[in-house]
Amino acid sequence: MTIETGTPDVAGLDRVVERLGQWQGVDGVVQLHPGDLGWFWRFGVEHTAGAVRTWQRDGEILAIGLLDEPDMLRLAVAPDALRDDDLAQAVVADAADPARGVLIEGKVYLDAPMESRVQELLSAAGWEADDPWQPLVRDLAAPVEDPGIAVEVVTAESAAVRTAVQRASFDGSTFTDERWHTMAAGTPYARARCLLGRDAQGEAVAAVTVWSAGEGRIGLIEPMGVHRDHRGRGYGQAITVAAAAALRELGASRAMVCTPSFNVGAVATYRAAGFEPLAEIRARSTDRTTDAV
């Protein structure tokens, strides 16, 4: 059967989210999670649908990609299709040709599961390994310890506080109240929570969003931030512990987070919160800039 590449319409996004959730097993590293779509959803459902690519055979979705940026595709592959050569050939061919509407012209990146046939074909085609990212996971079989700070679940009424902490945690953040409400109305957020951490004076000092993929599956932390005026006091560790507890309540078997390997402070924070590092992952890149004639 021929591999067909497509972009879902708004009505088809729910099917994509559900299929992606089914791939979040208890083993291996998750390259793309329903929570990634959920966090992207803050830009609107139409924009989210337009940033998704699917690869299907005989009506079955075998791979799902999210264009975090026009030059960056993050790919998930069905566990039983990781070594499917026809699928991998189709993905790589689509990624290599700007005319196919997957990646733009110029320098581009494709983040695929490390154990997938896609990675091998990209390497063979001369795509270079990009900077490493560090995934970390925490098993949630046992109850999670108390985080040591006051933690509350964000509601529509407290969304403005949540977005303010986000903007104070990440330079250049554009997370507005409107975008929080748009995200919270999305399908993935039905299995998600935003949390606020407060210090002893009641000030909001940290925030996190957690995404479950369903009972017994891996849950995702994305994003986590500490207010720039309150760093260095253990609030990152505390809110990450709270995030793990929330994911356990939502039925996740493990909690996962991923950060650039060079961000040693973030890695240390997650490890202090009980997360263990897995093997690093790398996207691959190539430059397809057309020389001027």
UniProtKB/TrEMBL annotation:
Keyword flag Hydrolase: no
UniProt keyword annotations, A-Z: Transferase
Pfam short name (any one): Acetyltransf_1
InterPro entries xref list: Acyl_CoA_acyltransferase, GNAT_dom
Molecular functions (GO terms): acyltransferase activity, transferring groups other than amino-acyl groups
Signal peptide: none
N-acetyltransferase domain residues: 149-293
Top-level taxonomic group: Bacteria
CDD domains the record matches: NAT_SF (cd04301)
Protein name: GCN5-related N-acetyltransferase
Organism encoding this protein: Kribbella flavida (strain DSM 17836 / JCM 10339 / NBRC 14399)
